[in-house]
Design brief:
22 strands; 616 residues; alpha/beta; four-stranded mixed beta sheet; Glutaredoxin; seven-stranded mixed beta sheet; 14 helices
Length: 616
């Protein structure tokens, strides 16, 4: 009898669970609740504005290999996510956006068409059939934009990729950007390997978004009809070029300038000569223009930031150490009210300078990137022969000041040059963004290139690229696309864990320094004892020397125990934090979803009863 009751209870529980599952599915069907802080799975306001601004129909063709992906459930789920996002965009476009889904089966006309558009076919399975997962966008004229392959690894950037394509297709003419760079951003021949290097990732991204007009540092004038001028490491410009830059800015042109007290990324005229690299001038500035505008920028010092120093390993296998000259600016030291930096999480820089206004400057300076309060200034010459970054830690004298590393400059300024007839210099309204670092543009500080089935994919680990594109977009007056890009990131750093690590590293560093000091003292004491003996046979230790060695060995063991204890404490704190996070993910969130489903079912039933009573 008990067995029957037990079996009945199990059947009842199973039916109850099934009923609750069906009920919750019916109750929340079509409902969406995005609990991510940055709303990664909800169309941003910027995307909605871009869709509403489409004036002529745009067609997106979504190529996805249904049959070939049969054994790849993760890829199929990602393709469904792409389709859902496209459908939501169509609903928001007032009929101006059309989406077609195409299955390029092997040896079909659709597959030939995908190849003509340049879509990437990824060989999968034993038969080596191609898997297509890309989008082709066209407008009513001759506009064509192609995403050759949408990598599932970049799902967090999916909305931006689609919004960018729609934005470009909706513009009759792409904005023109003049790029004058003293760094090899376009790629150049590697003197050591004899191979052509790839262009910098940021150069490729700017080229995708805008029509880029390259300007040589030896030119004497800017090209006509550019909308934004981007200056990168502008060293040794001619006076004629400086005059033309001054004229461009005062006539209403927009300026984005990257200057540097010490550019780590400048290869110099002969990168194969290490001696020349050590003595070359790595600074760049716009001294004449800055002086006229009332902008202060020192080229003999750089900002060393202990509070935002990144870990680096100069050699393979070497233990990473904090490098005060290579810093990662975090969200708390960015301007959260500015559209350029408002939603970014981290931007990496190397040996940056700082910006300030002169006493009588007519400009307004709005900081975009800043150092932490635990920062100070060091001489740039200190970087030329630096072997151990840890040496800089003891040299930094924090001032408590937040140094401005990048800023927006605005206001009416006078020309830096006298007019040809001797009259007073012209004036105009300056609209510029100035960054006191050029290294943030180099790939190694913000992005990794990965190969995915033969396709080169950019995997950013910092927001340097977003910062540059945001700045250009903002100077052009387009804020909608900025809001999409700024929020499209799934990288959420564990700031509490990082804080615990930094605190433990400081404890470790202090203990290690104490160990080294005691080691030097013991060796000095041993040398004194040997000299006092005056014996020729130094291999025989006196009792005093043996006692000194024993004492040092005991101290070393004790300090090593302290080091291990610090590491254990660090691991224990991080593991405890991880346990709490897992508890929230495993227990709390399912409970909230269940309560929500039951609440919605109760409301629906209540409304149904009220409707029945009303009819009665």
């Amino acid at each position: 009898m008990k067995n029957i009751y037990s079996a009945s209870a199990l059947v009842f529980l199973a039916l109850l669970f099934l009923a609750l599952t069906i009920l919750s599915g019916a109750a929340i069907k079509g409902a969406r609740l995005d609990l991510t802080e940055q709303k990664l799975y909800t169309l941003s306001e910027g995307t909605i504005n871009l869709l509403g601004a489409i004036e002529e129909p745009i067609t997106l063709e979504f190529y996805f290999s249904e049959e070939t992906s049969g054994d790849l459930p993760m890829v199929r789920n990602f393709a469904r996510r792409v389709q859902e996002l496209l459908d939501e965009m169509v609903e928001r476009s007032d009929g101006q956006l059309r989406v077609r889904r195409i299955d390029p089966r092997p040896f079909s006309e659709e597959e030939d068409q995908a190849d003509r558009y340049g879509l990437e076919g990824i060989p999968v399975g034993a038969a080596g059939e191609n898997l297509y997962l890309g989008i082709v966008g066209t407008n009513m004229v001759d506009g064509l934009e192609v995403v050759p392959f949408i990598s599932p690894a970049r799902e967090a950037f999916l909305e931006y990729e689609l919004a960018r394509m729609i934005y470009i297709l909706s513009q009759p003419d792409r904005p023109r950007v003049g790029l004058l760079s003293g760094l090899p951003m376009d790629g150049r021949l590697d003197m050591q390997t004899g191979q052509q290097r790839e262009p910098w990732a940021i150069r490729e991204q700017v080229g995708e978004m805008f029509e880029v007009e390259s300007i040589e540092t030896s030119d004497d004038a800017l090209p006509a009809d550019i909308d934004v001028l981007v200056l990168v490491h502008p060293a040794d410009l001619s006076e004629e070029m400086l005059r033309d830059i001054d004229r461009f800015v005062l006539d209403g042109g927009r300026l984005l300038a990257f200057v540097d007290p010490y550019s780590e990324s400048d290869p110099g005229p002969n990168p194969a000569d290490p001696a020349a690299a050590m003595t070359m001038d790595r600074t760049s500035s716009l001294d004449e223009l800055f002086e006229a505008w009332g902008v202060e920028f020192a080229t003999d010092v750089f900002v060393a930031d202990l509070g935002q120093a990144l870990q680096v390993a100069l050699q393979t296998g070497q233990r990473p150490v904090r490098h005060p000259a290579i810093i990662g600016v975090t969200a708390e030291n960015m301007n959260r009210d500015d559209v350029v930096t408002g939603e970014l999480d981290a931007i990496n820089l190397a040996s940056p300078g700082y910006l300030a206004l002169a006493e009588n400057s007519p400009l307004e300076l709005e900081p975009l990137l800043m150092s932490s309060a635990n920062a100070g200034l060091l001489d740039t010459e200190r970087l030329r022969f630096l072997e151990d970054p840890g040496e800089l830690i003891a040299e930094v004298a924090p001032t408590g000041e937040h140094y401005v590393l990048a800023a927006r400059l605005s206001g009416e300024v006078a020309s830096a040059f006298q007019s040809g007839n001797g009259e007073s210099p012209n004036s105009g309204v300056l609209n510029a963004i100035v960054v006191a670092d050029t290294d943030l543009l180099a790939d190694r500080y913000w992005v990794q290139r990965q190969r995915f089935f033969g396709t080169s994919i950019l995997d950013p680990f910092a927001g340097n690229g977003d910062f540059v594109i945001n700045a250009i977009d903002n100077l052009l007056g387009n804020a909608d696309l900025i809001s999409v890009r700024s929020r499209a990131t799934g990288n959420r750093p564990f700031t509490l864990v990082e804080s615990l690590r930094r605190e433990a590293e400081q404890n470790l560093l202090a203990t290690e320094q104490r160990l080294e000091a005691e080691l030097e003292e013991a060796e000095r004491r041993l040398t004194e004892l040997q000299q006092a003996r005056g014996d020729t046979d130094l291999s025989v230790l006196t009792p005093e020397q043996e006692a000194e060695l024993d004492r040092f060995m005991e101290q070393r063991i004790e300090i090593r125990q302290q080091l291990r204890q610090v590491r254990r404490d660090l691991d224990r704190d991080i593991e405890a934090l991880g346990t709490r996070v897992k508890a929230v993910n495993i227990a709390l969130m399912p409970a909230l979803v269940t309560v929500l489903a039951l609440f919605m079912a109760w409301r629906r039933r209540r409304k149904a009863r009220a409707a029945v009573k009303g009819e009665g």
